[in-house]
Amino acid sequence: MRAQFVLSEIGVGLRRNLTMTFAVIVSVALSLALFGGSLLMSDQVSTMKGYWYDKVNVSIFLCNKHDADSDVNCAKGAVTEDQKNQILADLKKMPVVEKVSYESQDEAYKHYKEQFGNSPLASSLTPDQMQESYRIKLKDPQKYQVIASAFNGRAGVQSVQDQKGILDNLFTLLNLMNRGALGVMAMMLIVALLLIINTVRVSAFSRRRETGIMRLVGASGFYIQAPFIAEAAVAGLIGGGLACVALVVGRYFTIDHGMDLAHHLTLINFVGWDAVLTKLPLILATSVLMPSLAAFFALRKYLKV
């Protein structure tokens, strides 16, 4: 097979179907950009889980004198010193507990003012209305139920709260958004495949005379199909290249510069450039293989070779 002939046929085919080739490039670029973005989102969620689940605490809130009338768990009154000491001693004996810290009513009031000082409720609160609490760092964040079952309902304990539950709601939302992006990507991918198949059919039909002559002189099926497959591969590769550029530019302007999320959202551990760069070869490989296979199967049906 002469490479010069194949390359010349690729150029001819791309020029003849310029509008459809452009549509293929754009649809492939959008679908693969969404594909890469979904992979990065999945990595981001995993990174955030590893980062935040390692930092979450289980909080045991203790009854104060104001809870006796409003909370059934505190019907016996405010927590006593003996009860607090017993709770602390039991916590330190538990093998799942890594560290225990105590937050007084004054400290809780100070933290509340720092976080919600602008709310109307903040001005009416006093330190004695706040709850004392023990903040427990677990060796394994999944072992929350061990603490909950041991201290829920105990005298002097108002409630046991797992911060992991709050994070689970956030990660559920992020996963739903990621699945939505995958759904849009799947639709764009179907559109791209249909465009590729249609473009190959139109190109094969417009060159049916040349392919007929090639069959008569004994050209092999693959020799006849190669230019059409290569056209689809080139268009896909251009789209894949644009998708890679979109991911790199998106990461640069949203996290490092422009929006500068890495600076403004310091509590989030964003995925690094290594995660982005490892996705680019996969996107480029997909951008070549997907159109090539689509063209190959389209030609088997629509090009009689």
From TrEMBL:
Keyword field contains Lyase:
no
Q: Where in the cell is it found?
A: Cell membrane
What GO biological process, any one, is recorded here?
cell division
Where do the ABC3 transporter permease C-terminal domain residues begin and end? 184-304
Q: Where are the transmembrane segments?
A: 21-41, 180-200, 221-249, 280-299
Q: Which NCBIfam families match?
A: FtsX_actino
Name it: Cell division protein FtsX
Give the originating organism.
Answer: Streptomyces incarnatus
